[in-house]
Amino acid sequence: MTVLVDTHAHLHDPAFDEDRLAVIARARAAGVAGFLTIGTDVATSDAAVALAAAEPDVYAAVGIHPHDASTADEAALARIAALARAPRVVAVGEIGLDYYRDHSPRPIQRTALVAHLQLARAVRKPVLLHCREAHADLLDICGAEEVDAVGGILHCFSGDLTVARRGIDLGLLISIAGPVTYPSARRLAEVVRALPLDRLVIETDCPYLPPQPWRGQRNEPAYLPVTAARVAELLGVSTVTVAAATTENASRLLALPPLGPAATPPLA
Ligand SMILES: [Zn+2]
Ligand SMILES: [Zn+2]
Q1: Cα separation of 118 and 145, whole Å?
Q2: What is the mean pLDDT of each run of 10 residues along the chain (268 residues)?
Q3: How many A from CA of 144 to the centre of ligand 2?
Q4: Distance 154 CA to ligand 1 centre (A)
Q5: In CA terms, which of 27, 75, 91, 111 is 20 to 30 Å from 145?
C-alpha cells in the first residue's frame, strides 16, 4: 500500500467552492491519503480548520502569510494562537518571507515570522515556510528562533543547493511542487538530484502551480502523482519509493495517524 500526502494545499480556497468534495474524491482515487490545507490569514485559517473538521483525511495549518503580514496585529496573532492549539491543526503556516512580491514591508514580514516561530515552539508544532528571494534572512531567523526544536518544511522549494543544505541542517524538510515538472526548471532538477530522500516531501500548492500537463489551469491534489513521478525520475528510483519515503517523512513531521487502505484506494 503506497499512498501520497499533499503537504501543501489550499483546499478551502474559493477556487474549489463549486466542486470541493469532488476534487478531494478525485485525489483519494489517485492515491492521496492525506491533505494539509493551509491558511494564509485569519479568515482562511478559520476556513482551513473547518474543512479539516469535516473531512477525516484533511488536516489544517494556521498562520499569516508574508503577503498578509501587515494584518498580523495583536488580535490576529491571538486568534491564530488559539487556532494553532486545535487538535486537527498539525502545523503553523503558511508563514515566511516574500521579497519578490513585497506585499507587506520587509521589517513587518520579519516581525510576523518571528511571532509565528515562537508560537510554533509554544504549541510544539512544525512550521510551513514560504520563501521567495529571501532565503538568507529566512534561514537566519529560523536559526535564531531555534526552528529545529519543532522542525518544518521549506514549501515549494525555489532556492539553490546551498540553501537546501542549510535548511536541512536546521532540521527542515524540502518540499517539491509542480514546477519540478516544467522543462525550464533545470536548477530545481539539479537540487532534487542532490537531496537525500529522507528530507523530501511533495505538494501541489493547489489551486496554484499545476504540473506541466495542466499549466494555466487550476491545480488540484489529484495531480500530485505527476510530481512524485518526476521526483522519482530525477532520483533514479521508482515512484512507489518516492511515495513511501515522502509519506513517511510527512507523517513523522506532522504526527499524522497511520494513512492508507481504510481511508483510500492504492496508488495506481
Ligand atoms: Zn507559498
Ligand atoms: Zn501556499
Answers
A1: 7
A2: 92 98 98 98 98 97 98 98 96 98 97 98 98 98 98 97 98 98 96 97 98 97 98 97 98 93 49
A3: 24
A4: 9
A5: 75
End-to-end CA distance of the chain: 10
Q: Among 236, 251, 166, which residue's Cα sits nearest to residue 201? A: 251
Which ligand ends up closest to the CA of 61?
2
Ligand nearest to the CA of 38: 2
CA of 113 to the centre of ligand 2 (A): 15
DSSP characters for 17-79? Answer: TTTHHHHHHHHHHTTEEEEEEE-SSHHHHHHHHHHHHH-TTEEEEE---GGGGGG--HHHHHH
Cell numbers standing for residue 216: 494555466
**Alpha-carbon span 207 to 221, nearest angstrom:** 9
Work out the number of other CB atoms within 10 angstroms of the CB of residue 21: 10
Only one residue has cell 521549506, namely 154
Cα(128) to centroid of ligand 2, in Å?
Answer: 9
Beta pairing, strands 152-154 & 172-176:
parallel
DSSP, collapsed to helix, strand or coil, labels residue 7 as: strand
